[in-house]
Amino acid sequence: MPRLTLLVIDDDPAHVQAVVEIAERAGFRTVQAHSGTEGIERLRNDAIDLVVTDLAMRDRSGLDVIAAAHSLGAARPEVVVVTGYGSEDAAPAVRRAGAAAYLTKPLSVEMLRSVLDRLRSETERRRGLTSGGATMSRIGGMVGRSEAMRRVFELVERVADSHATVLIQGESGTGKELVARALHDGSPRRAGRFVAVNCAALSAGLLESELFGHDKGAFTGAHTSRVGRFEAADGGTLFLDEVSEMDPQLQAKLLRAVEEREIVRVGSNDPIPIDVRLVASTNRKLKELVDAGEFRADLYYRLHVVNLLVPPLRDRIGDIPLLVEHFCRELAREHHREAPVVEPEVVQHLAAMAWPGNVRELRNALETLLITTVGPRIALCDLPGDPGTRPVDRVAPLTMRPLAEVERDLITNTLRDVGGNRARAAEALGISARTLYRRIKELNL
User: Is 52 helix (H, G, I), strand (E, B) or coil?
Assistant: First the structure.
């Protein structure tokens, strides 16, 4: 059974730590927020099952937290309110606001544990979070009930609280960064920073400076010293997205940093010790790149301590109804709208589509529908184009055709579907932007 996630909100760090220790001993996965504003942001962006919040904080109150939780609709977490004031006037107001329980400081360990055990049972029963059958699981911002996703959730649960390096492999748009964040949030390093770097977005020189930092005068324009991402992530997690795109010389420097647990800034000779958990991802088959001599074997084995494969959407079609409901609620909150009712025929149509851009493409399509649909329901007539057309059918059969012609059609149709946005097209096709630009030029598109 997956652990429930409990969010602790308080501007008193000592109290946060006390609640975290009690909750983790009770078997919860915990997330911390040190202000009401940060807590509400966590509620909106993370999958939270229960909340323990202080009532009186410097910026937002526990009543604001309750209101934010209730705005999540059916996915709302129960909220336990704790206060140091404990006046008779506060308790009725908190209960009227919808709190599941009201406790006073200093906290009784037994009382808090009893409340958490009760709310855990109620939450598991309400959401059907059981260990078997076609029930839904949630980790971080990911939802799913398919066997493929349950394997991902189970491996994240087993690996998160270790210090092991993790390699996340999967097509673009499958949610690799969400997996990386879930590993960080479930680890002993969760109080540290989660720092992400896209290795495909920067040239080798810029990426080296971005990762390791540089000293003043290291190169033209280096007017001041700069801390790199390794130093920024010290005590936390460094996520290297699309690590397969890293320049071979930089791969050697990364390998040394991982092995020696120290980095050297560009323009310096002084090593700086680092304490960082490394999580890397790629949308390419890294072992094939190693065999082809395009990626260092020694670095590959350093990164491949734990291999986690995120399935494409086509291998988890049964999750699409859940994802539609989840994204509609999430997007409605983002755009300050009521969550629409998606008619069953629309969900069936969405489940029949190809989705080469995976979950990211599905979310983008739902965002478009949410913004452009008039009224509280999304019907087949609201879908763009012919509702009976599947994206895969817009390309002629693939067999018995020249490869260049097939590739030309695929790139042309993908660019059309994303409105000509080459960065989004590259993500949907599962290739780097540089590769897409080169193929567009070679195919004279």
Answer: strand
Between CA 18 and CA 382 the distance in angstroms is: 51
The one-character DSSP state at 311 is P
pLDDT digits (tens, 9 = 90+) for 48-80: 889 999 998 988 999 999 998 888 765 678 999
Residues 6 or more apart in contact with residue 206 via CB below 8 angstroms: none
The three-class DSSP label of residue 61 is coil
**Amino acid identity for residue 158 in this structure:** R
pTM for this prediction: 0.61
CB 1 within 8 A of CB 153: no
**What is the SS3 assignment for 281?**
strand
pLDDT (tens digit, 9 = 90+) per residue, 129-150? 433 333 445 666 688 878 888 8
Contact, 281 vs 167, CB < 8 A? yes
Q: 10 Å Cβ neighbour count for 129? A: 18
Q: Locate tokens 């087949």: which residue? A: 380
Alpha carbon distances (Å) from 5 to 32, 204, 437: 11, 39, 42
Contact 65, 40 (CB under 8 A): yes
Q: Two tokens at 374?
A: 């008039």
